[in-house]
Amino acid sequence: MRGARPERALDVVVRAVAPLAPGMRVCVACSGGPDSVALASLIDRLAREDGAEVVLAHVNHGVRGSADQDECVVLSVGARLGRRVAIARAAPPRTDEATLRDVRYAELARLARAADACAVMTAHTAEDQTETVLLALFRGTGLDGLAGMEPRRPLGDGVELIRPLLRVSRAELATELRRSGLPYALDPTNDDLRYRRNALRVHLAALRADFPSLDRAVARCGEIVRGELGRTPRARARRELRAQLDDLGALHDVSFAAIEAALDAER
């Protein structure tokens, strides 16, 4: 459509999860990969509109041959955006996924505190959420695992972790990346099937051909579980409405979307 601005749809999603305000300073975790570079571009644009400050935060573990190249890409992105880049070099004691993640989050929290930032934003997408929930399910998780990644949670010492893209697909995010024209690097380990997440990703790509709403359904499951675990008013209202319909014998074949629409109409 002539004059359309498709990036604005992303802006609405991000602002709903992570509203910015004048004077606020946030860190964007930037690995140099396409998703994190797209997030850096998106948050940079919103911050300029809202008067917030942005610092790009990069953790170089030094475990890949391309680690220094990734760091250079992030420095280039920061220069193109005119944003400061904060870098941590932290060699992990082990190179398994869990250890790398824990070290990375600890370093991101430290960089955010040093930059006087209130939050760290990461570029976890809808596909990442699906992988997280299914991997937890395959391990025999309880409800906590089915809840998936939270959009917002404390990262430590006054710093919040925010994942504003959990409802955004990689395809949607790629639109922002193309619009930005920013450089990015591809992680060669993403093709290493020894990592469980990568192996699962191959099978999910095939499943999405037959189940195009797969990621949306998993995200919805996670939201429901998080609401139930947190005993939110929305979760309570959902249970009450379902109980009323069940008492009337009218619950059969009532979809989740219909329940949600009814709750929204009552507001």
Task: Kindly describe this structure.
With 267 residues, this protein is α/β, with parallel strands linked by helices. It has two domains: 7-191, 3-Layer(aba) Sandwich (Rossmann fold), CATH 3.40.50.620; 205-266, no CATH class. 55% of the residues lie in helices and 12% in strands. The chain contains eleven helices and six strands. It has helices at 7-17, 34-50, 67-81, 97-114, 126-138, 143-146, 170-180, 196-210, 214-230, 233-247, 256-266; strands spanning 25-29, 53-60, 84-89, 119-121, 152-156, 159-162. It has a six-stranded mixed sheet, sandwiched between helices. The chain is globular, with a radius of gyration of 20 Å. It starts with 6 loop residues before the first helix and ends with a helix.
Topology summary:
Blueprint: H1 7-17, E1 25-29, H2 34-50, E2 53-60, H3 67-81, E3 84-89, H4 97-114, E4 119-121, H5 126-138, H6 143-146, E5 152-156, E6 159-162, H7 170-180, H8 196-210, H9 214-230, H10 233-247, H11 256-266
Parallel strand pairs: 1-2, 1-4, 2-3, 4-6
Antiparallel strand pairs: 5-6
